[in-house]
What we know:
By secondary structure, the protein is mainly β. The protein contains one helix and 18 strands.
Amino acid sequence: xxxxxxxxxxxxxxxxxLRNLRYVDRVPLTICPDGDMEASSTLWAATGSATVAQVTxxxxxxxxxxxxxxxxxxxxxxxxxxxxGGAQSPPIRCKAGKSYYLEARVRCTGTSDIATxxxxxxxxxxxxxxxxxxxxxxxxxxxxxxxxxxxxxxxxRLNGNSATDVTRWEDVMLLPTDARxxxxxxxxxxxxxxRYLYGATAMSDYDYNVDYPYNDNLWDVIENAGHTEHPLRLxxxxxxxxxxxxxxxxxxxxxxAD
Length: 258
């Protein structure tokens, strides 16, 4: 290094290089904002007196680690509000009477903890449907539900059961079951960075294999003209009946501190 090179100059040079680099990742297909918990700052808000935080330290190995996939998970420390104390997604536009598939990957940090995944009617302030998990190892919970007749906005809630519960969450997947076109995350701006579409096999309560590639003639990606929030959308020639994953080339996060 040259004498007098500042740390700030080095950071700029590294970030310039990172902007031109990509790594291959498989991401869950979902209309839930920040469903994979990988946003630079979490989009999930605390409900009641709960607290939420992004976790980046892997901790112990699977199945008890803090992070299951990627580099982040969402940690929720629940409150005395029980099933109403946790985290909630931003509002999600839905269609009344429409059927949706919801699932999430979760683990409890204590043997007496209970994690509750909730589809929540944001218009009528009511739970639509729930599923629970009480294992300290990572697992998956989910269900299919219909939006109530007077509901056009829903949220996903990640709740607990008591003030002492602490849970970890990842891969919240929400999809309309009759979806033919699905908006893609806003960080996907280049069709060339989308490689494959995968389905799941060997599904169980604890895990599944993301190893079923769909033929190219069953799906396509097109530009979502005029939409800066979701510039691309996925077009399907089949109806999804479970989790879907995209294999993509993803940008490296830039350095943010000196």
